[in-house]
Design a protein that fits this description.
Length: 317
Amino acid sequence: MRKCVPIIATIALLVRAGNGAAASATCDRACLEGLVNRYLEAMLARNPFSLPLAQKIKFTENEQLLKLGEGLWLTASGPGSYRLYAADPQAGQIGFLGTMRENGTPIALSLRLKVENRRISEVETLIVREADSAKNIEAMGKPDPVFLEAVPAAQRKSRDELIAIANKYYDGVEQSKGSIVPFDPSCNRVQNGLRTTNNPDYKMPPPITWNPLALGCKDQLDTGFFSFIRKVYPRRFLVVDEERGLVFGSFLFQIPGTVKSVDVPGHGTMPMAPTNLSPYTLDVVELFKIGSGKIKRVEALQARLPYGTPSPFFGDK
């Protein structure tokens, strides 16, 4: 009988391990969204240890490795009114775009959580400390309903197909070719709360005398407007929400500051915006809505970082 004890104990451990794996698999959309909400509440309470944390946790803010409890954890002062989620139960990951208050000032933020056995093992945040951006996002009221629509089961694309479609967008940016990107005719993009396509009323800053934001997704790329971006690298597609046709990821736009003008069809040579005449890396989190194999919406947050800033997560296995 004594020899049976270790065997029984081993079996019990295996059962518990199996139950843990099952629990991880049952962290569905509601579970993942609930963890995001708990994370934001814990941040406001300055209490990271109230969260279900993995033994090892990796935490970044604007591509900087920090200890959980630092950065925005020390300055967050109130909730925001905008929340948009992309859930990936299969991978145990969730992406979030929203707003908060930092010492009373509106900010925008993105958040990605990786969840293993119902415990948070990775936290990746991007903070946009521009009050106007947060105010513009909250002025939208609520997320575009298209992001919340489920794709009929028979029309859903696979994970690999959804990522390939979103990846084409960055090929189009690098090559200034909207024609190679599968855009839906209704496509629109919002960046930091500003609609940056089909926005004819937007006034560009001097010395730019034309409005590329008046164009649609495809035509805007075709103008060469984004030629100041040398490369989008790395491209990290992190959350794939197959039910809703969403892809959420983190992307670093490498901008050397060497492109001084662009030849725009119908407008001639146009000067580059002064903000793009010095080297920097643009840290971008983007959420794509894909339907019938085409990009219908893009919503993004972006923050300017020193040129060459690396991603602490790039290369992780």
